[in-house]
Amino acid sequence: MKRKTIVVLDYNTYSLNISMKKLLALFDNELLLVHRACAINKNRVLKYDIQKNVIVFDNNMEIDIVSKKRMKNSENIM
After folding, report:
1. What is residue 34's predicted lDDT score, i.e. its pLDDT?
2. Nearest-angstrom CA–CA distance, 11 and 76
3. Rounded distance, CA 69 to CA 9, Å?
4. What residues does 65 pair with on adjacent strands?
5. Tens-place pLDDT, residues 8-34
6. 57 strand-pairing partners
7. Residues 6+ apart with CB under 8 A from 4
8. Would you tell me which of 21, 49, 63, 67 could form a disulfide with 35, CB atoms 3.0–4.6 Å apart?
9. Chain-centre distance of CA 52, in angstroms?
10. Nearest partner of 57 among 71, 72, 77, judged by Cα
11. Are 32 and 38 in contact (CB under 8 A)?
């Protein structure tokens, strides 16, 4: 069984039959992999709190599924 990729937008959530690798390739410079199972739109990031390891988006949604290994170079996030 193939895994689905979940895409969360402001007003909807979509379940797609596309791999994370292919999704990242489609949105080459816009998406950033912050965890092996989570990519974010860099253009929507409001701030990254390094101490709490939380990303806050411009719609005030927060995520805490951030890999410290992937975020070593956190300047890539904004």
Report:
1. 87
2. 26
3. 26
4. none
5. 998 999 999 999 899 999 988 889 888
6. 45
7. 15, 16, 17
8. 67
9. 17
10. 77
11. no
DSSP three-state, residue 76 = helix
**pLDDT, position 67:** 82
The C-alpha atoms of residue 57 and residue 32 are separated, in whole angstroms, by 13
DSSP code string of 60-75: S-EE----TTTTTTGG
Q: Taking CA 5 as the corner, what is the angle to CA 10 and CA 55, rounded to the nearest 5 degrees? A: 50
C-alpha dihedral (74, 70, 9, 56), degrees to nearest 10 = -40
pLDDT digits (tens, 9 = 90+) for 19-75: 989 999 998 888 988 888 889 998 999 998 888 889 999 999 999 878 877 776 666
